[in-house]
């Protein structure tokens, strides 16, 4: 499959390139900064430079690459969670508007499936762990509520497209190389400096996923059947031609596939 990966130089993008190539796909890795093009090249993918916020640029890029599948891993997050509040507005613009440009451009060139990064840690578990059925915490205070509403909008965009098959992957907090939660990551450094207090009884539960595991699941989402394909193969009832036989004299003869069996 030919895949365009947006956010290719990020914490998930890099292991995802390796995984997709191992599984035999042709991967085009999109980055915004030219200095990251050699990174993509070194990982074995075809590098392509593009700013998701440049709508015309996205249409031109998609027209040039013409992938079967687009994977949106666009983020604009800081290297330290302590700077999150300042960066969230720009991150939201990138995901909503930049991702929207990418999504529209993908549809325009006939992309078959669009895989969207979403979030599993702002879900509302009712008295236990949240599941796929759980709603996002859109009524949470401040930035959490705003982010949850953003993820809700992203999910709606891909799942209700009607033309492309949409998949929204609700990842946990990423850990692994290049993340906040790796031994050299910003969160770990803040903990070691004693800068992360436990607030109240500290009973909030963090669900993590290693970036390599996220890459494995994302690669699997390329092939998993969409809801409609499952429905076709399991729920269609067929239709009787009895009435057409008796009223119209229908005698179906053109069934060559039956003769070949
Ligand atoms: N959901 C999450 O991703 C998430 C959640 C919580 C915490 N974090 C933490 O945030 C940190 C960074 O995560 P990350 O790897 O996702 O971010 P990242 O390393 O900054 O990667 C973001 C990717 O998006 C691309 N990009 C950014 N702006 C773009 C634009 N306008 N047009 C096209 N591409 C653009 C970047 O390309 P360039 O590099 O070329 O700019 C890069 O490939 C990690 O430490 C992680 O632990 C992430």
Features:
single chain, 261 residues, alpha/beta, Rossmann fold, six-stranded parallel sheet, two-stranded parallel sheet, 15% strand, binds NADP nicotinamide-adenine-dinucleotide phosphate
Q: How would you describe what is shown here?
A:
The protein has 261 residues and is α/β, with parallel strands linked by helices. It has one domain (2-260): Rossmann fold (3-Layer(aba) Sandwich), CATH 3.40.50.720. Helices cover 42% and strands 15% of the residues. The protein has helices spanning 13-22, 37-43, 55-65, 84-108, 142-159, 186-192, 211-220, 227-235, 242-248, 256-260, and strands at 2-6, 26-31, 46-49, 69-72, 113-119, 165-171, 173-175, 208-210. The protein has a 6-stranded parallel β-sheet with strand order 3-2-1-4-5-6, with helices on both faces. Bound molecules: NADP nicotinamide-adenine-dinucleotide phosphate. NADP nicotinamide-adenine-dinucleotide phosphate binds at residues 6-11, 13, 31-33, 36, 50-53, 74-77, 94, 98, 117, 173-174, 178-180, 185.
């Amino acid at each position: 499959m030919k895949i365009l990966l947006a956010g290719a130089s990020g914490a998930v993008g890099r292991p995802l390139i390796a995984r997709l190539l191992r599984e035999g796909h042709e991967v085009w890795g999109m980055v915004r900064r030219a200095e990251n093009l050699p990174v993509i090249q070194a990982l074995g993918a075809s590098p392509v430079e593009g700013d998701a916020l440049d709508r015309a640029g996205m249409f031109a890029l998609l027209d040039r690459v013409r992938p079967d599948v687009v994977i949106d891993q666009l983020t604009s997050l800081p290297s330290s969670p302590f700077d999150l509040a300042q960066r969230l507005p720009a991150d939201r613009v990138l995901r909503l508007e930049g991702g929207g440009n990418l999504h529209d451009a993908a549809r325009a060139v006939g992309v078959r499936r669009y895989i969207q990064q979403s979030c599993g840690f702002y879900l509302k578990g009712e008295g236990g762990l949240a599941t796929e059925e759980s709603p996002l915490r859109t009524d949470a205070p401040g930035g959490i509520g705003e982010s949850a509403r953003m993820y809700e909008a992203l999910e709606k965009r891909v799942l209700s497209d009607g033309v492309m098959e949409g998949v929204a992957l609700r990842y946990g907090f990423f850990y692994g190389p290049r993340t906040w939660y790796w031994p050299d990551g910003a969160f770990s450094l803040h903990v070691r400096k004693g800068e992360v207090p436990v607030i109240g009884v500290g009973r909030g539960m963090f669900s993590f996923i290693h970036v390599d595991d996220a890459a494995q699941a994302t690669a699997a989402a390329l092939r998993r059947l969409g809801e409609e394909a499952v429905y076709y193969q399991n729920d269609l009832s067929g239709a009787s031609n009895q009435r057409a036989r008796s009223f119209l004299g229908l005698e179906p003869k053109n069934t060559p596939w039956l003769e070949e069996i």
